[in-house]
Amino acid sequence: MGTDATPPRTPPPEQRLADRLAARPKPAPMPARPTAVTMLRECGQVDLAVYRAIAGTPTPTLDLPMRRLSATADWSRLWLAIGGAMALTGGRTGRRAAAAGFAALAVDSAVVNIGLKIAARRRRPDRDSAGVPANRRVPMPESTSFPSGHTASGFAFTNAVAHTLPAAAGPLGLLASAVGYSRIHTGVHYPGDVVIGAVTGTAIGEISDQGPLNQELAYQLSFWYTQYMPS
């Protein structure tokens, strides 16, 4: 089994937030604080327990498809390919849907990779200690773990496209969910990273469906299509 060079483990965000809450001075009795601290610590424990349970469950039939799906979604290539197919074959509606999806991917990349990942600073999981099988593994990313960028991109693209093509919401949502699970299955994310990634991506897809960026993308796609793909 290969090993991953990982820096010293840092407590998960739930644990660090719980420790900060517990360490704050208590000027007056605050019965809610111990409850919040306990809940955050328990969420961190559940997160780790689910990760280890998935790592320790033999799934030889799933291992190769999950590894391939995870790799296909690197750099949003999966969603860019789907959006390109929509723009080429879906007419005006397809180009509008693709533009919405591309706009959501752009916003999502900035929010997740520049904002949330830097702020959270969660270390990647230790696959060796959890026993993630070697044949499941994809290269461990150098970025921080929280939230899952792959999952956020998938849900951002799905929600933005669904505003223009509602029928695509189901298939794309299932695919985005599978990508999110593949990141846990291959050992590069905790379940909590994926859950928050899905919530973040869904919100970004909702707010980025309209606006100047989307309109500009729609214009560029329409221009490209009429210039290079005449009917």
Characterize this entry briefly.
The protein is mainly α and 231 residues long. The chain has ten helices and no strands.
Give a quick set of tags describing it:
231 residues, 70% helix, mainly alpha, globular
DSSP helix count?
10
* Helix fraction by DSSP (H/I, runs of at least 4): over 70%
Largest sheet descriptor: none
Specify Rg, calculated over alpha carbons: 20 Å
Q: Which shape, going by the Cα principal axes? A: globular
Residues in β-strands, percent: under 5%
Average pLDDT, all residues: 85
- How many strand elements? 0
Poorly predicted sequence stretches spanning 5 or more consecutive residues: 225-231
User: How would you spell out the order of helices and strands?
Assistant: HHHHHHHHHH
What is the CA-CA span between the terminal residues?
A: 54 Å
Class by alpha and beta content: mainly alpha
Written overview of the protein:
- The chain has 231 residues and is an all-alpha fold.
- It has ten helices and no strands.
- The protein has helices at residues 13-23, 32-55, 60-72, 77-89, 91-120, 127-130, 149-164, 169-185, 191-207, 212-228.
- Helix 5 packs antiparallel against helix 7.
- The longest helix has 30 residues, at 91-120.
- The model is unreliable at 225-231 (pLDDT under 50).
